[in-house]
Write a structure and sequence with these properties.
The complex is a heterodimer of chains A (about 325) and B (about 425). Chain A has 15 helices and two strands. Chain A is flat, with a radius of gyration of 27 Å. In chain A, helix 4 (about 85-115) runs parallel beside helix 9 (about 175-205). Chain A has about 325 residues and is mostly helical. The longest helix of chain B is centred in the N-terminal third of the chain and has 24 residues, at about 5-25. The model of chain B is unreliable at about 1-35 (pLDDT under 50). Chain B has a five-stranded mixed beta sheet. Chain B folds into two domains: about 40-150 and about 315-365, D-Maltodextrin-Binding Protein, domain 2 (3-Layer(aba) Sandwich); about 155-315 and about 370-435, Periplasmic binding protein-like II (D-Maltodextrin-Binding Protein, domain 2, 3-Layer(aba) Sandwich). The termini of chain B are far apart. Classes of the chains: A mainly alpha (about 325), B alpha/beta (about 425). The interface between A and B is large, with 42 and 51 residues.
Chain lengths: ~325, ~425
């Protein structure tokens, strides 16, 4: 270290060595510390996120029998076969169908619930905690209970339908009916969670905005649509993206909704088999074709990216009118 | 590099390492055992193998060994993917694992996952097993023995006496057996039963019955069903499959099916509520019925002969994965559980029919009755045909193909497809499955 210092022109040897060193160290510190602070996440992400992602891509380029040895490299063959596989597209339609049927009412209901909870209520904390209870319940328990409720012969829903003189529905082997049933359990579980996220964002909206709006004569509905919703836009986008990721990866609910032999098909004619279930069916029982299953996983990844992008665009456009002046 | 940074890095590494440890620990098993303490052997099963008493006896005789069974009562559909994952991961499988005969073919294609029992003195045991059962455990070249046979699935027909009485049918088992020497007569009885409007269906669902008929027809004909013995897919050209299909379609057409999907929640509820009167009943099914129908069904059920002639459905093997840390002890345990004594013990507990000729001849089996099934002489009913059982050959993608064909049966059963469409689906989807 001292060698370097000696090489300097000895003109102004006044500033002591110490401060100079400290400055350099502190410069290094300001420059690199932020990276170190976020490093733990990226390190863990590299191990548990990026590596599996890349490995899945690698596997998807092979004819890879789960138990076999020496998988053969087949290039894009799994993908070309998959794109021509009607069962795959069938599962994509199922997934999107369930996604739309569940997410749209879910977010609207969550918004409404959050708005209600944002008012002066008795035992407000109690209500707020109550909406989260379904989310704390184990998904498996929810799915099994709903699976029984929606039973063809011994289910409570069909019993109620019968009471009011309607024919029972075979919820498990009717395509649209099974989508509705599965959406019900998704909504039951996630509406309260999204409501709390919306509520948190709502509480960050300054009260005086509402006060001035009230002075201007805006009623509650007008306040909601003209103040609350536009200011919630970032939160809504967040909720939509999270719901998209969750909705398109839906697995536990539809899997446990069906029981018995071969439930992974989601009904005898794949009525409610989602993409993740199709992936599982191919990668594990009964096919054990890991390469093909990995290709499904990658296409699902792309599908989620596309749908999330479309959703963001739609939400931007919807909120666009009110949010134009917003500098954010 | 400052000391702080180093500490930070170390902390990160520590977090990552802990996370890794936590994940690998999930793989389970008994890796962290002290080498000098008693060893734990894990046995992976599905359904009911009836080994509890045998474990107790074995642990008493071998004080250094503790046995833990996993998967008791689970569905084969849940069990087999788990086992495959454990084998593929090289970690997590039990020391002794049960393998069902329909899945054994796929495991045999990759024999490196299992210990070759022939290297551990198993060859001497050959005489303890029915010949075809022994052979089924061998790889194609006959050089490696993967599994020792546990049980075979001799066939019968279980029925509810109370519902038969309600419908004005005979209830005594010999009289019931006489009602249906063939499947056509079984259908005729079913029509009579349905006409009596007891509020219950004649049978649980078409898939179980179809599987019984196809195994019986194929066993009695050329000895194979979906694949011929050269591993060609013959779903569309094998007359045995078509014949079983047509008989099943007659059953559906006559409105005999309760349409309960096998092993579904509804199926279990239907047992509890006595919603069907008969179910095709391989020996191991008696344990399933008892479990599903519960104590309330005791004495209501009885066992008659199966329509048609014999047949074998199911039966399993015990194997030792190479990943086991206690191979020698595991092999010893597997040998004990599949011994004549072990098979008799299992039969007494949960009803799986022995694959050992000595066990089948043993008075403990021949004179056995089952209290749950109105003291039916299960030993006589099942063991009688067991030694002359005609097994059915299973090809490489047997499980996937069987799934497709049964699924097609189910779509017709539920009225989603007509029999012709169903058959087309069965053939096309089976071809697709076999090619995957």
């Amino acid at each position: 270290m001292s060698v370097q210092l000696d090489a300097r022109p000895p003109v102004a040897a006044v500033p002591p060595v110490r401060p100079d060193r400290t400055i350099r160290l502190s410069r290094i510190d300001t420059k690199w510390s932020p990276y170190l602070y976020i490093a733990p996440f990226f390190l863990l992400f590299a191990i548990f996120g990026a590596y599996p992602l890349a490995y899945t891509l690698w596997v998807s380029l092979h004819d890879w029998d789960l138990l076999g040895s020496n998988p053969a490299f087949v290039g894009a063959e799994n993908y070309t076969r998959l794109l021509a596989d009607p069962d795959f597209w069938h599962s994509v339609v199922n997934t999107l169908g369930i996604f739309v049927i569940s997410t749209v009412p879910q977010l609207l209901a969550a918004l409404w619930l959050a708005n209600m909870l944002n008012r002066q209520l008795r035992a407000r904390t109690g209500w707020r905690m109550a909406v989260l209870v379904p989310n704390v319940t184990s998904t498996a328990a929810v799915a099994i209970v709903f699976g029984v409720l929606f039973g063809r012969e011994f289910g409570m829903i069909n019993w109620l339908l019968d009471l009011v003189g309607l024919d029972g529905v075979d919820w498990k082997s009717n395509r649209v009916a099974s989508w509705v049933a599965i959406s019900t359990m998704v909504d039951w579980r996630w509406t309260g969670y999204n409501a709390l996220i919306f509520l948190a964002a709502m509480q960050a909206i300054p009260r005086d905005l509402y006060e001035s709006a009230a002075i201007d004569g805006a009623n509650r509905a007008r306040q909601f649509w003209s103040i609350t919703v536009p200011l919630l836009r970032p939160t809504i986008i967040f909720a939509v993206i999270i719901s998209t990721i969750g909705g398109l990866q839906l697995f536990t609910e539809p899997r446990l909704f069906h029981s018995g032999t071969n439930a992974i098909r989601g009904g005898p004619m794949r009525e409610s088999q989602t993409v993740t279930m199709y992936m599982f069916e191919n990668a594990f029982a009964p096919y054990y074709n890991f390469g093909y299953g990995s290709a499904v996983a990658w296409l699902l990844f792309l599908l989620i990216a596309v749908v999330a992008a479309v959703n963001v665009l739609i939400i931007r456009r919807l909120g666009g009118g009110a949010g134009k002046g917003d500098p954010r | 590099m400052g000391a702080n940074t180093f500490r930070r890095r170390a902390a990160v590494a520590l977090v990552a390492a802990t996370a890794l440890l936590a994940t690998t620990a999930c793989g389970g098993g008994d890796a962290e055992e002290a080498s000098d303490g008693p060893i734990t052997l894990t046995v992976d099963v599905f359904g009911q193998f009836g080994y509890d008493e045998l474990y107790k006896q074995y642990m008493a005789d071998n004080p250094g060994v503790k046995i833990v069974e996993r998967g008791t009562g689970s569905n084969l559909d849940e069990y087999s993917p788990k086992l495959t994952q454990w084998l593929a991961a090289g970690k997590g499988a039990g020391d002794v694992v049960a393998i069902e005969e329909g899945l054994l073919v796929e495991y045999k294609a990759n024999p490196g996952n299992f210990v070759n029992l022939l290297d551990h003195g198993a060859a001497d045991l050959k005489g303890n097993f029915l010949e075809w059962k022994w052979n089924a455990g061998l790889t194609a070249d006959g050089k490696q023995l993967i599994g020792l046979g546990t049980d075979v699935g001799g066939m019968a027909m279980c029925y509810r006496k109370d519902l038969f009485a309600k419908a004005g049918l005979p209830t005594e088992r010999d009289a019931v057996s006489k009602l249906w020497p063939t499947w056509q007569e079984y259908i005729a009885v079913g029509e009579k039963f349905t006409a009596a409007k007891t509020g219950a269906s004649f049978l649980d669902g078409a898939t179980n019955t179809f599987n019984t008929i196809v195994l019986q027809t194929a066993g009695n004909a050329q000895g194979y069903h979906y694949y011929d013995t050269s591993d060609n897919l013959v779903v569309d050209s094998n007359p045995a499959v078509r014949q079983a299909w047509d008989t099943t379609m007659d059953i559906i057409d006559s409105g005999l099916s309760g349409k309960y999907g096998s092993w579904s929640e509804e199926w279990v509820s239907a047992f509890k509520q006595a919603k069907f009167a008969t179910i095709a009943c391989p020996a191991w099914m008696t344990g399933v019925i008892e479990g599903n129908a519960g104590p309330a069904g005791k004495g209501q059920w009885d066992i008659a002969d199966v329509p048609g002639d014999g047949g074998n459905w199911g039966g399993s093997f015990l194997a030792v994965p190479k990943q086991s840390k206690h191979q020698a002890e595991a092999i010893k345990l597997a040998k004990f559980l599949t011994s004549t004594e072990g098979q008799i013990g299992a039969f007494k507990a949960k009803g799986p029919l022995p694959s050992s000729p000595q066990a089948l001849e043993d008075p403990a089996i021949a004179d056995a009755t089952n209290a749950y099934f109105s003291d039916a002489p299960v030993g006589k009913i099942f063991a009688a045909g067991a030694k002359s059982l005609k097994p059915v050959y299973m090809g490489p993608k047997n499980q996937a193909v069987r799934t497709e064909v049964e699924n097609a049966v189910r779509t017709v059963d539920l009225g989603q497809r007509n029999p012709d469409q169903g058959w087309t689906d069965a053939v096309n989807n089976a071809k697709k499955a076999a090619a995957k």
